[in-house]
């Protein structure tokens, strides 16, 4: 396929009404590149190759665009199959979280938005919904399964369990930004298993 | 002391050459209120009650100011007395970290700067120094003491140990922003002790 052909395919996609998709992608790229504070509707429109009016037909302000993207991510359920044991489930959820935390959304955009939560209650609420999705998935599903299997006591503190599962990985990948080998992940799963068994 | 008197004391402090201190404080307040992206030298000078030229006599750009503040925080050593046991040391370091993480510097400014690290290698380096201070204090000092006491094996992975100690607390206070009771802190210390003992 020649460059000219590819251009016309992209053009056709935009003409077919994929402007919203193009704008969403442009928003994520702009957020990662320049941050929420410097984000402008003009830059998003330019990156998507559309007029500024195309943005304002869809969203009232940049905050509306950002909240929609965050809420969409919050809505996506973490897929967490039952491996039959708490250790297996832990290993799997740590792997899934490690993938998610290596995405630019975690390392670039989430810190931007976290910084905004103190300034904007709407951003705080949207991020809180996203966080609660992780909290429910890890806390309720993973811990409840372990309780049903008799691997953890029934009065296990689900909030604390989430801190123990998500915290070390988040610190390692999103804050310290140190590498994490498959061997590290195994050690982390063992350590987390011991922590969960000890917390009550 | 009347308001007039207090004003004249503050005025005298500025006259005595405390402009740098006033500017540093103003910078922290501006960062917390508006974020790095929207931070302007003008606003910092206005908040400190000095002319813009006073800023430019001290720093070349807003980045220089911010890096100095971060580096200064990195330089401050966490005070961590030896309690005689790993459990005691853990409980104490978790308490100290919990205090630090409730400070606006952690909840507002650090997320801003983390978001900038992908865009600016100087910010990345300054934050990395700050992070390594925590890493050394927790990893090297706390873990080495426990190894010397025979509470942990000599080949304990110090990086992973820091993830296990700092991560859950960071997630709880800086990301999830849920309350943490003294009882939670106790449970967390027990869980972390079990995790550290299991990780090797």
TrEMBL record, chains A, B:
One of its GO terms (molecular function) is DNA-binding transcription factor activity. Residues 17-77 form the HTH tetR-type domain. It comes from the Bacteria. SUPFAM superfamilies: Homeodomain-like (SSF46689), Tetracyclin repressor-like, C-terminal domain (SSF48498). Keywords: DNA-binding, Transcription, Transcription regulation. Pfam families: TetR_C_11, TetR_N. This is TetR family transcriptional regulator. It comes from Asanoa ferruginea.
């Amino acid at each position: 396929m020649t460059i000219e052909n590819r251009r016309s395919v992209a053009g056709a996609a935009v003409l077919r009404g994929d402007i919203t998709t193009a704008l969403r992608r442009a928003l994520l790229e702009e957020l990662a590149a320049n941050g929420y504070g410097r984000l402008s509707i003009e830059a998003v429109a330019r990156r998507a190759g559309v007029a500024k009016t195309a943005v304002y037909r869809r969203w009232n302000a940049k905050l509306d665009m950002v909240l929609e993207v965050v809420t969409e991510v919050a809505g996506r359920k973490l897929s967490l199959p039952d491996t039959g044991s708490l250790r297996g489930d832990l290993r799997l959820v740590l792997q899934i979280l490690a993938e998610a935390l290596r995405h630019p959304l975690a390392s670039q955009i989430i810190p931007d938005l976290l910084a905004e939560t103190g300034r904007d209650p709407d951003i705080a609420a949207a991020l809180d919904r996203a966080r609660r999705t992780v909290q429910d998935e890890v806390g309720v599903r993973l811990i409840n399964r372990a309780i049903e299997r008799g691997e953890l006591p029934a009065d296990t503190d689900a909030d604390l369990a989430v801190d123990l599962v998500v915290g070390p990985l988040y610190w390692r990948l999103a804050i310290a930004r140190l590498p994490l080998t498959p061997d590290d992940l195994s050690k982390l799963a063992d350590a987390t298993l011991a922590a969960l068994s000890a917390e009550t």
